[in-house]
Design a protein that fits this description.
This protein is α/β, with parallel strands linked by helices. It is 35% helix and 25% strand. It has 18 helices and 22 strands. A hairpin with a 2-residue loop joins strand 7 and strand 8. The structure holds adenosine-5'-triphosphate and magnesium ion (MG). Adenosine-5'-triphosphate binds next to strand 2, helix 1 and helix 15.
Length: 497
């Protein structure tokens, strides 16, 4: 098969960081090539060079046999190379249709935008790829998963020859992943070449022909998917064997109820009743849009409670805002790290220590030395890849940014910790470290809620899993959490009717 793209001896540095070290790779026309490696290995940097977002320092690029420089995103797009980013980059105030056709002249007639054509064409495009979203909806009203599908539609509009997916599923649940895979299968049938980056290894086994492994800026090897095992792949990625995906589970908890919700309703969730024990990790799963994130928002004082009550340590509380919630010892690490969790332009150190609790309860960090030691410890435990903690979060790779979200939550040391998709975009090795830290916090008596689209994640961490569906609790699995079928039944039940 002919190579559609050849990368020869490409090198890239960001200051002291050697992001790409003499990378050579040939991508065959029509194949789906996976790109894997630990957080900070250089995957996004490599594909950003292909899409003209980053410029290489050294090396050569060939597209369809022609040497090319790819000096700008426009040049790359004109050649037929397109990218779906790690997090959707859309304009929140505009509608789905406007976002998709932004900059596309085909919806203009006589120099004027034809709204009719715009919405009609958007409808057709979304239908072709089975994306169920209203073209008139404003992007800010959509959840992150739906935004991601809109971003993909925008890319497909250009009918690219090569599509790069950089962790498209980090915020998707199984249902949306299925939609995405249908889209990818359509692209494959059209003989479109795909480069697919993901930390979810099962996905790679499902859709890719070959797997290119990167480590510390180098391309280590390219493997055929056939006959490849997960253990082998992890070994190539980490350069060592990973004994287990999860640390040993500790299912005990104290008898005290840390948090209780009684018939809580907000604009988005209805009649939620649940208990979280002291020293417990409770799992919450469900489809995207089932109300998991909205439940977290209610507990954190972000959404107004219309009826029902919240009790913390037995006492009824009213949480009018996040400050109230923080005062009561609640902390939320949200799923949208760019929008809510981090101040990207500020240093890593500041992001980690900048938590509401700090200003309220000064005793947590009485001295700066202690604080520094804690930050350094978390950097080591989570293996945050940065030469100094004074760099802006913006300069970190996606997975390392997510580690900062986790570090920030841990530093806050609240009594009740809610993690919404804590390991999105995090590599398998670092996931294990995060799970170990969560178990440790649990042992210290913290009460933790883990919201995850990955059923395996809540199964590996929790002894109790609450399943949400259409804004309500569909059911709870207690003890027998390995029973995946029961979880799936609860997730989908009404949709089958
Ligand atoms: N704009 C930038 N400025 C400074 N350093 C950067 C910049 N972009 C990337 N880096 C550094 O380059 C290295 C490679 O980052 P890259 O984003 O390519 O990793 P990745 O393999 O995509 O990781 P992840 O799985 O976490 O997304 C990292 O050490 C990162 O901090
Ligand atoms: Mg990346």
């Amino acid at each position: 098969m002919a190579a559609i793209l050849e990368v020869k001896h490409v090198d890239k540095r960001f200051g002291a960081v050697h992001a790409l070290n003499d990378v050579s790779l040939a991508v065959e026309e029509g194949e789906t090539l996976a790109l894997v490696g630990e957080n900070g290995a250089g995957k996004s940097t490599l594909v950003k060079i292909l899409t003209g977002v980053n410029q290489k320092d050294k090396g050569e690029l060939f597209f369809l046999g022609q040497k090319t420089e790819l000096k700008s995103a426009m040049e790359s797009r004109n050649l037929g190379i397109a990218q779906v980013y790690q997090q959707a980059e859309l304009i929140p105030e505009l509608t789905v249709a406007e976002n998709i056709f932004l900059g596309d002249m085909s919806v203009y007639q006589g120099g004027l935008l034809s709204w009719k054509t715009l919405f009609k064409k958007t409808g057709e495009l979304l239908k072709k790829y089975n994306i169920a979203v209203n073209p008139h909806a404003r992007v800010k009203s959509l959840n992150v998963a739906t935004q991601q599908l809109v971003a993909i539609a925008k890319v497909l509009l250009q009918q690219p020859k090569l599509v790069v997916f950089d962790e498209p599923t980090a915020v998707l649940s199984d249902n949306e992943v299925k939609i995405l895979f249908d889209i990818i299968n359509k692209l494959k049938a059209e003989h479109t070449t795909i480069i697919y980056i993901s930390h979810r290894l099962e996905e790679i086994f499902t859709i890719c022909n070959r797997v290119a492994v990167m480590r510390d800026g180098r391309l280590i090897t390219v493997l055929e998917n056939k006959n490849l095992t997960k253990a082998d792949l992890i070994m190539h990625m980490l350069g060592k064997k990973l004994e287990a995906m999860f640390p040993e589970k500790d299912i005990g908890h104290e008898d005290e109820v840390a948090l209780e919700l009684k018939n809580v309703s907000t604009a988005k969730v209805t009649d939620i009743s649940l208990k979280l024990m002291k020293g417990e990790i409770l799992g919450i799963t469900g489809l995207v849009g089932s109300g998991r994130t909205e439940l977290a928002r209610a507990i954190y004082g972000l959404d107004r409670i219309k009826s029902g009550e919240i009790r913390i340590g037995g006492e009824r509380v009213r949480l009018r805002d996040t400050l109230d919630a923080s005062k009561r010892g609640i902390f939320l690490a949200p799923e949208d790290r760019k929008g809510e969790a981090l101040v990207l332009i500020r240093p890593i150190r500041e992001n980690i220590t900048l938590s509401n609790l700090k200003t309220i309860s000064k005793s947590f960090f009485c001295n700066a030395k202690k604080e520094k030691a804690l930050v350094e410890k978390l950097r080591g435990d989570l293996n945050i890849k940065a030469d100094t903690m004074n760099r802006p979060v913006l300069s970190l790779s996606g997975g390392n940014q997510q580690k900062v979200v986790v570090a920030k939550a841990i530093t806050a040391r609240p009594k009740i910790l809610i993690f919404d998709e804590p390991t999105q975009g995090i590599d398998v090795g670092a996931k294990f470290e995060i799970y170990t830290l969560l178990n440790k916090l649990k042992k210290d008596g913290l009460s933790i809620i883990v919201i995850s689209s990955e059923i395996e994640e809540v199964q590996g961490l929790c002894n109790r899993i609450v399943v949400m569906r259409q804004g309500k609790i569909a059911g709870e699995i207690n003890g027998n959490v390995e029973d995946t079928e029961s979880i799936l039944n609860l997730m989908y039940r009404s949709e089958a009717v």
